[in-house]
Amino acid sequence: MSHNGEVDNYSVASRAGLSLRGLYQGKMGYAATEADDEEAIAQLVGGVIESAQLVEDDAVQEIYRGDEKYPEIDNYAPALDRVSEADKLKLLLDMEKCALASGDERIKQVDYNMISTSSGSTRIVNTYGLNLSQRDNMAVAYLSVVAKEGDRVATGSGFAFGRDFSALNAEKIAREAVEEALFYLNAAPVPSGTYRVIIDRRCMPDLLSTFSNVFSADAAQKGMSLLAGREGETIAAPCVTLMDDPHRAGGLASSGFDSEGVATQVKAVIENGKLTTLLHNLKTARKAGVKSTGNASRGSYASPVGVSPSNFYFKPGDKTLAELMADMGSGIVITEVSGLHAGANPISGDFSLLAKGYTVENGQKGQPVEQITVAGNFYTMLKNIRAVGSDLEFPGSPVGSPSVDVGEMNIAGK
Amino acid sequence: MLDKRIAQDVIDCALSTGGDFAEIFYEDRLNNGVSMLSGKVESVNSTRLHGAGVRVYLGFQGVYVYTNDTSREGLLACARRAASALRSDARIHGKPLAAFDYVDNNPYAILPSQVKAARKIEKMRAAQAVMADYPEIVQSSVRYNDSEQRVWIANSDGLYTTDTRVYTRMYITAIASNGTENQTGSEGPGALQGFEIFDQRIDPAAYAKKAAERAVTMLHAPVCPAGAMPVCIDNGFGGVIFHEACGHSLEATSVAIGASEFSGKLGQQIAAPCVTALDDGTIPNEWGSENVDDEGTPTTKLVLIENGILKNYMIDRLNSRRMQMPVTGSARRQDYSYAPTSRMRNTYIAAGNDDEAEMIATMGDGLYAKSMGGGSVNPATGEFNFAVQEAYIVKDGKIDHPVRGASLIGRGSELLTRIDRVGKNMQMAQGMCGSLSGSVPTNVGQPMIRVSSITVGGC
Q1: What is the per-residue pLDDT across A134-183, written as a single tens digit (0 to 9) for each?
Q2: What is the DSSP letter of A131?
Q3: Which of B43, B113, B453 has the highest number of chain A CBs within 10 A, making it the mutation to test binding with A?
Q4: I want to staple A174 with a disulfide (CB 3.0 to 4.6 A). Which of A98, B29, B336, B350 is the partner?
Q5: What's the CATH superfamily of A71-184?
């Protein structure tokens, strides 16, 4: 992070953790530690036994023997690990400099900027002789600027990520942030009512990510997803195909094996509107009588095995955002929603979220809009989708999307 | 623990390239958790966090390096790495470290790590049993978490201190369903205290009843109408409105660089005269309390707003340099992997003089937000949003019927000036607050308040 040309927070870390997962009297137990002193061994073994004894899970748990073949995934660029601190700091300061040198005096300051590079490795070793490992690294750059004019204030942000450090372009990131902040400086609410809505490629991933758990067989088996038992049914409009692609080149969640050591696979979760499969780990698959889809995940080395998507996105259609807008005629493009942890209920699918965006009049970009809420239901939205755009993007997360015409939604404004 | 001689060497090493301040934060923490779904124990977890972070300043530049190699060599390597990022000709040495005594404001009787998981599960079953009695509750989730965090902090000003923080909490969620729709109700009571909280201050069954009744009520509620209207926000977790809409914008993190809508407004009227708000880290055993903050500064009771006038910001060490104002014992971090910054502790609107029944009786048509969900804010613009877990339509001063799916949006500065009633029944509730230095335990709180107009988003 920098402020006025000085780096004010530069942070470096090396961190390692060890998790022990084991079957004790047929039940799975867990414990984890970062310390490597004598107490640690007792805590690990004692923790595994205590949890295995108390967990009341009838499902048969297993340690995986391994697959014959694993896909080769390239998640590691050696050159990125060799980028000097000086080059990283230069990019950080360049972003701030470019933003403040925009030539527009309404850009008052950079309120947050950040460069982060990470490099790590994951290894799974078990008593069946499975021994899998994988390296990965990543660089992320982010900038947020504040624009002020009289009493009006707006923020805008830009970012880039990838494994090729030289491709992170300070000027482009700054321009994105500056343009966004200036555009929203004159934003105002629209009158409350029902509007035609497009959710753009930057915003849809946030929504999809919030509700991604409804595709988890674990959630379904626990009664937390309304998709339980609905494989084969039509749950979305025919233009909707939802992909889970762990092999995607450059993907943030690309991996050859999942957290249980199962080989990963590319699949459509929704294909032309039809729910083809839920996402499974070994436990949920056994319970459902199917094969694991290779979606076992652990939030960190210390978390229990759950289920989550890998690179997860709506398969792009063939229309650009401009064409989607032209087809819509008049309505609103939503570019940002906030408050997803509070205003979206992943169980009922209901959401009511603070939103920003712009109006569309005669198929053209109109006025900036803020201080509105957009409300709907995720399940209903899937069915109401009229078209999926061609502009697929992953906004710094493994969940991505093109812009999507979602039909009508309720907007609360003035 | 952090050996004093090692700490002294690490500090000197961190200052070896010209830094003007250095600090080491050393942490050993044991987290235990149990989760139960519809009466079945799903997981029992035990995780030990262990590591240290070294911070060096040169003017307004800060470097933070952390590691979980806490050997003497590991810590010195960490200090050298931090030092290598700064360069000046000045050389100072750390002052001799002196023990620093404080009164333990947050005593605990029973260390949760000494309690068998089976006893924790008994307390969870008490909550679960209540929810199981409601036919429309199809799922119930109970999570139990405790954490014993031991920190040692030493810095080049000669400070050497330690704090032990013992947290115990239960998080209860009821899911009501009619087959096609689900509604949830949640309660998350906790304290900076040991396992004795379940004998002294937290009755899991009572909280489970509240969560279950809320989920069932909301299942039968029609959707909330949208538009601007007067809103009464009830006490307890209702204080999240102040936390989100104003609290974050009073943290030095955004104030110091002029990125807050309240920057430069000390001494000015920023709220209605009926509003007095505090951030207090000294309340014994409260969820957001500490003895010392994560920079080793004793925590304080801070008046943020008095009768509508802005009195104080929450300030950490780096921002105190920028703002040329004293620190307020507000520096916090999730764990050693974050550099600390200014954060809230127990933040609340103080009790006022208004009668709660009168507030609703005289509001005309509007919304009574009985239980709030979470929310978020953009400190630069003050734009906030949050969800209402349990809301009722008020018609002509009378509570009429429940509505679901309501959210409140607006700008913090506008909201503060539109508060026209502050009740007497101040109460606090527990939450986890996320910001630059990670997720930290905070209390929110308020008596019932009334806001003359807020934009309500419905479904």
Answers
A1: 999 999 999 999 999 988 889 999 999 999 999 999 999 999 999 999 99
A2: E
A3: B43
A4: A98
A5: PmbA/TldD superfamily (3.30.2290.10)
d(CA A44, CA A33): 7
Q: Shortest CA distance to A207 belongs to which of A222, A197, A217?
A: A197
Task: From chain A, pick out residues whose CB is under 8 angstroms from the CB of B379.
Answer: 111
Which residue intervals of A1-77 are DSSP H helices? 38-54
Kindly determine whether residue A339 and residue B228, on different chains, have CB atoms separated by under 8 Å.
no
B357 vs chain A: nearest CA distance in angstroms? 28
Strand A331-338 and strand A193-199: pairing?
parallel
In angstroms, the Cα distances linking B272 to B261, B275, B306, B312, B452 are 16, 6, 10, 17, 11
Cβ <8 Å between B117 and A377: no
Contact status of B435 with chain A (Cβ, < 8 Å): no
DSSP characters over B96-147: PPEE-----SS--SS-GGGS-HHHHHHHHHHHHHHHHT-TTEEEEEEEEEEE
Q: Mean pLDDT across the stretch B417-430? A: 97
Dump pLDDT digits (tens) for A319-344.
Answer: 999 999 999 999 999 999 987 766 78
When computed from its CA atoms, the radius of gyration of chain A, rounded to whole angstroms, is: 23
Class of domain B112-149+164-216: alpha beta
Q: Where are the beta strands (DSSP E) in A126-151?
A: 131-149
| Lowest model confidence (mean pLDDT) among B164-178, B246-260, B367-381 | B367-381
pLDDT for position B384: 86
- The H-or-E segment that residue B207 falls in is helix B204-219
**Chain B residue at shortest CA distance from A185:** B381
Q: What is the pLDDT of residue B113?
A: 92
DSSP SS3 for A318:
coil
CB distance A372 to A337 below 8 Å: no
Give the start-to-end residue ranges of the domains of chain A.
1-58, 71-184, 188-414
Interface TM-score (ipTM) > 0.85: no
* Torsion angle, alpha carbons of A380, A385, A386, A390, to 10: 180
